[in-house]
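Pasting as-is:
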Amino acid sequence: MAGNSRNNPRTSKKKGAQVGSGGQRRRGLEGKGPTPPATARKGHVKNRVANAKSKQTANARRQIARRGGKGSSEMVVGRNPVFEALRDGVPATTLYVQQFIDNDERVREALQLAADRGGIHLMEAPRPELDRMTNGLNHQGMVLQVPPYEYAHPDDLAAAAFDEGADPLIVALDGVTDPRNLGAVVRSVSAFGGHGVVVPERRAAGMTAGAWKSSAGTAARTPVARCTNLTRTLEAYQKAGVVIVGLAADGETEVGELPALGGPVVIVVGSEGKGLSRLVGETCDYRVRIPMPGGAESLNAGVAAGIVLYEAARRRA
């Protein structure tokens, strides 16, 4: 009969209690917490896209490191900052303008400056795209893209001076993190006939748009070099016959009493608060101080560098 066939695998001849699931089915019905976002779910298309972007970012960083520390492009955001950057000669590749922007005086002036300079692409973009580019900053419908600065090699600064038959006059910055101070130093180096500025790669200001503005255009003709280790760079200069002079509040000699400033020299300027770091200070051939009868404890890097550069230029003249 149907259901009693010996060939029916569903028919059990075992009598007595049957083995249960032990609560496994009930536990399987319990919640497992909130569903993770799509980017975190393995195998999801958004997870694959996120992983691909992460790999691209890592590869880009490795390529930047291989190119000698060149950074990514910088964005100047806002109508006044964009106008001032264009007016002050900050290098730029692209000016992004929001679609249907209110055409006020600042917008017209910025567009005219970009057109007059040439070489700057004008791009119209919707507001959401500008929001994404600036991470939600108040861009006011205008974004200026500044290309990465092309840093020189520290050896190139001294070599260029020697090739000209001149004694190198270089400023190295130790722990100066304000780009405006870096721009002011570049301006002073240019004014007093110096051959360039050296900055460390880490924990130091770089040639941003702010530094370009502070340099008042002199960054276009005064090279800035970047080094991985400032102490080793100064030692290499010493081997090339260049004297290292560090500025310190407790320096043994006053600036005006050091004849070495008339020859090949690197002037090392520390931060306003901490001054020279220990290793850099120990590497210097001379440590000099600037007399300040007014009683001020210190000067910012731009002012201090300008004073010593003036003394060096006076001795060379």
